[in-house]
Write a structure and sequence with these properties.
Elements lengths: L12 H32 L5 H14 L8 H16 L1
Helix pairs in contact: 1-3, 2-3
Length: about 90
């Protein structure tokens, strides 16, 4: 039997601001990835994969410095979650 415990996270104001920024940033990546997949399908009936979108994220990080602030692994998580949704 697996038990889970939940604890309340006690964060400072500065940490709260950082976590909200992180959440909004990852939501933005997720929404852009959905839009990119929809557009690719509408235009040419091509299904983008997780790896295609990872390449796009790498290019995005090169063009926009605010995307370089976070580690790549964290930014790839929304892409991975989206891939799992599209596999179902």
């Amino acid at each position: 039997m697996i038990r889970t415990y939940t604890t309340r996270l006690k964060v400072t104001r500065k940490q709260n601001i950082h976590l909200e920024y992180l959440l909004s940033h990852l939501c933005e990546i997720y929404n852009m990835a959905i839009e990119q997949r929809k557009d690719a399908w509408k235009r040419s009936h091509v299904s983008l994969s997780y790896f295609d979108q990872q390449k796009e994220l790498t290019e995005l990080r090169a063009w926009f410095p605010e995307y370089e602030e976070l580690p790549t692994a964290i930014e790839r998580d929304p892409l991975h979650r989206l891939q799992l949704v599209f596999q179902r």
